[in-house]
Amino acid sequence: MASAVYAGSFDPITNGHVAIIQAGLVAFDRIVVAVLTNASKSPLFTVDERIEMIADAIADDPRVEVDRFDRGLLVDYARSKGISVILRGLRAVGDFEYELQMANMNRRLALGITTVFVPANDYFFVSSTLVKEAASLGGDVKGVVPELVERKLREKYGR
Ligand code: PNS
Questions:
Q1: 5 close to ligand 1 (CB < 6 Angstrom)
Q2: Whose alpha carbon is nearest atom 20 of ligand 1?
Q3: Which neighbouring-strand residues pair with 35?
């Protein structure tokens, strides 16, 4: 069974992430979405909230597992799950340099692990950071994030 790990902060998950997972499922039978819990940036949502929003967005698709990833290297996490592919989305050219560095560093850290990139589609302009900024200032993020995320953002920002 071809599996991939899709790791990130997902603070919160956006429709861009959902599109990457869906595109990933064309190539992989199983995707483990791994939520990084020790992100240095102080997250808006707790890990449990982030996991709940991801699970809701993928609507119990049996091919997708949502997990938390507490510490250490992503390559070690992937190995612990018996997975040798890291799935990443590429939005704009600006992403490319960082993603290429990370992919090569991960390959250096664990030779048997490779990164597969999926191009972002209609949601290429969406990032969790921009979504939070827009929502915090009263912007409408409908259609850019899953419905539950939209509701939770409204709750967080009291709008
Ligand atoms: O999409 P994000 O939130 O920018 O994801 C970043 C993530 C989780 C993929 C990256 O920070 C990561 O892999 N962190 C785990 C620590 C690690 O393995 N660092 C070495 C990367 S070369």
A1: no
A2: 73
A3: 8, 68
Is the whole model's pTM more than 0.90, yes or no?
Answer: yes
Rounded to 5 degrees, φ, ψ at 145 are -130, 160
- CATH number for 3-124 (one of 1.10.760.10, 3.40.50.620, 3.40.50.1460, 3.30.70.1710): it is 3.40.50.620
* Closest C-alpha among 100, 104, 125, 101 to residue 113: 104
Q: What are the boundaries of each domain within the chain? A: 3-124
Write out pLDDT tens, residues 48-97.
Answer: 999 999 999 999 899 999 999 998 999 999 999 999 999 999 988 888 99
**C-alpha closest to that of 126 among 11, 17, 9, 10:** 17
